[in-house]
Amino acid sequence: MVRHRAPHGALLALALFAAVRAAGIAAVIATNALTDRPLVRSLAHSWDSRWYLNIAAHGYGRLIWITPTGGVQSDWAFFPLYPALVRAAGTVLPLTPAAAALLVSWTAAVVAAYGVYLIGHHLYGRATATALVALWAALPHAVELTIAYTESLFAALAAWALYCVLKDRWLWAGTLALLAGLARPTGFAVAAAVIAAAAQQLWLRRGQVAPGVWAAALLAPLGWLGYVLWVGRCTGDLTGGYFAVQGAWGSRIDFGAGAARFVGALLAHGGQVIYPVALALVLISLVLFALLCLERAPLALVAFAGVLVLLVVFGSGSFSSKPRFLLPAFPLLIPAARALTRTWRTRPASALLVGGALAVVSVLYGAYVTVLVHSPL
């Protein structure tokens, strides 16, 4: 078990996180009510949520979707850890599948926020750690941490794996990275971070490292690789089957060609608010990544955030989903958290105004994207 002493101030940070995200959940429920929808429909039955609930109830290979162009989309595109936890929660507790899914997501969100706080506290102290958690809670798409999606689970595993790297708990880091690889297609970003940090240790210590470092590097990619190979086996193409499944969903590496076409179409024809906001958030992520590098943040954090940013920029797929893919990349917020901490020390009223404004925008925009917009989350 990962052991540590809870640092002073953690409860305040978690209370801020819970307050902002609870307000976001309430806003979604209220918007559902105002638009005559079932109150928790947008929390538990939006887009990918329905696929996860079906996997939790019936397993894989039971649901496909034929697209208007004749493409065949299957449930093998969705990684197994989240539906497995949903099924387990529904088996142990008297909950509907939707309630079990929300319980898993909300619990994972709090665990993730605590991991984010621990990393911030370890590197920069209590004030910056609190600011980091608060900013993460107030991201425009942070509502997606508390719907029946995998972002909160993935973020929890990633945060704790990275914290274990920083604390030299290598076996735990490798194990958590393995689990992260079973949670999302982007799970190999955690494996890349653990492997990069292990390689750095080998370089700095000229190969004289504890066996746990080697074990972590070997364990880290096994979850992702295992699922990819399992899907390949099920489809009859061991090494290419998984990528064919993802390709049917429009998910592939196109080195930014799709993003360039999207930007061109957006400039030429315009679009819903969600699209320019998504583009702005992707561009901001590039700036934040550059600032993170200038901060000389630990290699594991830089590698993790960098892989996620690269996947968003070079990957195809719906542009409206890209901000969600960036949600787990909390290290990108470190420069902003440090700046907000400096502002708090000199002009606390300004820091509160900025934080409060971000929280209000997050709550309102979260309800908008989950209830009112008809684009993929």
Provide an overview of this structure.
A two-stranded antiparallel sheet has the order 1-2. Strand 1 and strand 2 form a beta hairpin. The model has no long low-confidence stretch (mean pLDDT 90). The radius of gyration is 20 Å and the shape is globular. The longest helix has 28 residues. It starts with 9 loop residues before the first helix and ends in a 5-residue tail after the last helix. It is built from 18 helices and 2 strands. Helix 1 runs parallel beside helix 6 and helix 9 runs antiparallel to helix 10. It is an all-alpha fold and 377 residues long. The protein has one domain.
List keywords for this structure.
GPI mannosyltransferase activity; transferase; single chain; mainly alpha; 377 residues; alpha-1,6-mannosyltransferase activity
What topology emerges from the helices and strands here?
Blueprint: H1 10-34, H2 41-44, H3 48-58, E1 64-66, E2 72-74, H4 81-92, H5 97-124, H6 126-137, H7 151-166, H8 170-180, H9 188-204, H10 211-219, H11 222-235, H12 241-248, H13 257-269, H14 274-294, H15 299-314, H16 322-326, H17 334-346, H18 348-372
Antiparallel strand pairs: 1-2
Helix pairs in contact: 1-5, 1-6, 1-18, 3-4, 4-5, 5-6, 5-7, 6-17, 7-8, 7-9, 8-9, 8-10, 9-10, 9-15, 14-15, 17-18
Give me a quick take on this structure.
Pathway: Glycolipid biosynthesis; glycosylphosphatidylinositol-anchor biosynthesis. Its main location: endoplasmic reticulum. The chain is mainly α.
Q: Provide the spatial order of strands within the biggest beta sheet.
A: 1-2
Shape: globular
Total number of β-strand segments? 2
Annotation field: number of helices: 18
Query: Mind summarizing the main beta sheet?
Result: 2 strands, antiparallel
Structural class: mainly alpha
N- and C-termini, Cα separation: 35 Å
Average of the residue pLDDT scores: 90
Helix content: 55-70%
Rg from alpha-carbon coordinates: 20 Å
